[in-house]
## 1
Amino acid sequence: MLPHVRISVIGCGYLGAVHAACMVGLGHDVVGLDVDAVKVEQLSRGVAPFHEPGLEEVLTEALASGRLTFTTDPSAIAGCDLHFIAVGTPQQAKSYAADMTYVWSAVDTVLQHATVPEEGPAVIVGKSTVPVGTAQAIADRVAGADLDAVVVWNPEFLREGFAVQDTTAPDRIVYGLPEDRERGELGRAALDRVYAPILERGTPRLLVNYPTAELVKVAANSFLATKISFINSMAELCDATGGDVARLADAIGHDERIGRKFLRAGIGFGGGCLPKDIRAFMARAGELGVDQSLTFLREVDSINLRRRDHAVELATEMAGGRLVGVKVAVLGLTFKPDSDDVRDSPALDIAGRLWGRGATVVATDPAGAAPVRAMRPDLHVVDTAAEALDGADIVMLLTEWPEYVALDPARTRSVVRTPRIIDGRNALDPRAWADAGWDYRGMGRTASTW
Ligand code: UDX
């Protein structure tokens, strides 16, 4: 029989909602706590408050088992053996640093409402992405409070669009444990019970100290961001020389030490994680007096932001120097496909800037239209690609949704006014579009013979 743990998940946003539902699948009883009554009500009905493939199925099954509840009442976490902290740590409005308000308020909730199980201390497991040093600070606060609890840091690595898969079949699990070996063992054993079905499959589990666990997450995201900015800087070189960055990435990617993944040049990275994580990491390094160690991330960030400028300049150049009155069809607004997330989305930023330059922007997105309409009522967002493309002077593919990648160049040509396309994600076949009469511009890529 599977070990059974009574779990609370504090914070039912992207991370917490997925985590709560998936923990039921592992055989546990879960209560998800959030301050947002609307979100709690939706989740309780099995409705995902955001677009995430597979989540509603997992939610529905977990709710039907009777072992998953969502609530706004913090007293519901009493009686749980283990508490996951899964609240957000967004970028602060006026600095690069992470806003830790929600983490500390989650810790306060646990200290006020958690109880100590019969068989040993309560366990508090941090999953939020936090500045290094936070786990120890939380452990110190807990030690000074009236609750016998062990703090463990257990970073998540989930990607939007693959969140369920990344939670139930992660490629590794990291536990950041306290220095006190006996307490650490208690924390390790508790998390081993939670993740038993995953660990039984041989998933690597790394036992490390607090700072290492906290650094693993930001180091991984910094590496990924660096890889993307590296290939985007190569795209700039390709633009200057006539090279093709996609073929370049294919060629260097065959070297196993480099690998082809995360070498897709384009308009750069966005979303709720990579941009804010590298900035918070730089801010923390500054506080620690080692800002020089991460100066390269400043460059990674600027290369990334330069991609957006480049896309806007390219559109302006293609329009003959002025965008006023030029109809631009923007295909894609989310930061990546299979997501409705427009946080720090390069596509949305570019659409807004084109509009600012006087272009008649008509944008569309299969999942991001609703959030953009709410956020940017000034932007003209239509429901279908056909409406956006109708009579366009320039087409810009900014998020590589499969339905845009599958557009037929000849048929699309027959509906636009002028066949000019900017492939912001290098997702199209340049030759096929050029052969159909389009002026095709990729990111560090042209329609060359080879
Ligand atoms: C990322 C990390 O991948 C994940 O491990 C971490 O837990 C959270 O942050 P996510 O934000 O969901 O996940 O998106 P990801 O798939 O990593 O893409 C991030 C951005 O980089 C997107 O805007 C994407 O379009 C862009 N990207 C990705 C590129 O521009 N080129 C690439 O080669 C890969």
## 2
Amino acid sequence: MLITDLLLHPIAISDPPLRSSYGRHAPFALRTIVELKTDSGLTGISETYGGDGPLAGLESVRRRVIGMDPFRLAELYRDLTAEPAHALEGVPGERTQTYLVPGENPLDRHARTFAAIEIACLDLIGKAVGKPVCDVIGGRVRDEVSFSAYLFYKHGMPGGDEYGEVLDAKSCVRECRQMIAKYGFREIKLKGGVLDPDVEISTIRALREEFGPAFPLRIDPNCAWSVETSVRVGRELREELSGGGYLEDPCATLEGMAEVRRRLLAEDNHTPQASNVAVTCFADVPKAKSLDAVQIVLSDPHYWGGLRNVQQLSYLAGVLGMGLSMHSNSHLGISLMAMTHAAAACPNLAYACDTHYPWQTAADEVAAGGRIPFVNGSVRIPDKPGLGVDLDYDQLARGRERYAKIPYRKRDDEAEMRKHVDPNWRRVLPRW
Ligand code: GKR
Ligand code: MG
């Protein structure tokens, strides 16, 4: 089987005005759907980051990918990682405004370009041998993968989503109740770094009060806090973040997180810290471990270099005595299935994975058959070869039309804040 064509479909999907320390989400998130056509008649698919940067990365490997045998993935990885990103893509390797948003960092591009091709190749391999992707990469350790309720503070909009405005503890508990009623999630993540830390502390406490200790809690301010504030929040939420919860990227840098860890341990507070900002590739892991800055690594097939790298990360984390969880950005069902197959084949994954999926809608879904179902907060591995999901070409065409109509080609949450909330808003770290 040889690849005969690489088709790239840039799409835009509607996204609510979610808040984070980066700012506010724009009305549309950008994604790219990848199709690999082969001489066997099979087509492999994947979903990845959208906009000009990721598209340029994928275009730059077109000649390398066409004619390739989809089974020869190690060779492709070697070739893509042999050259620096800017040499491959003809773009300068400078850091963008959204630097520190995983997947938006130009320095991550090799990994994410490779991942998008790898996942489509694994879909092809699965289809060729008649097996689900998780079984092609060594076999599943679970048939279903659990996800967490990913709560955001957000603005309300006329005609907006069912969650309305969420800018305090009470409305956040309501948002969580709605999401759990709809999807059955059993773990909860709050995106923090938006409101005063005392409001976010009271939100976590209100969630604990409402759902009880059977629902582990995590909070992720994306580095919005100083070391001092991180220690204070860790101290105040010691009880609530125990029992399967964690503190995610409270402050910037591994050194900062190491200091938070030291100071909390000195108070006999063992709250683990997780990261998808300070640790985004294998080279970050040794330092994170030796400083004891991070106890839980957040994987994500989209920027760690695909499903097999996530599986390797799972083994590495196991050897180093670190935990493993999974990060997410705005995405549709093809990404959700890639995440599910990756998680199903990771023995050391002990936490419910993050997913933005509840924030996207059926109107934008490009998976044939519509939205991927969650049962009790979990997604089952379909009894089908490959990723187990096909493309709905009408929906894909609608996504492409939306993309063609919108004026922006990269994520800029700061610009959205300036447009709608505060004309002088800047991302300042630490904010508190
Ligand atoms: O979508 O605003 C967002 C998130 O903050 C996202 O950009 C992060 O990458 O969800 C992510 C995280 O866990 O840090
Ligand atoms: Mg995070």
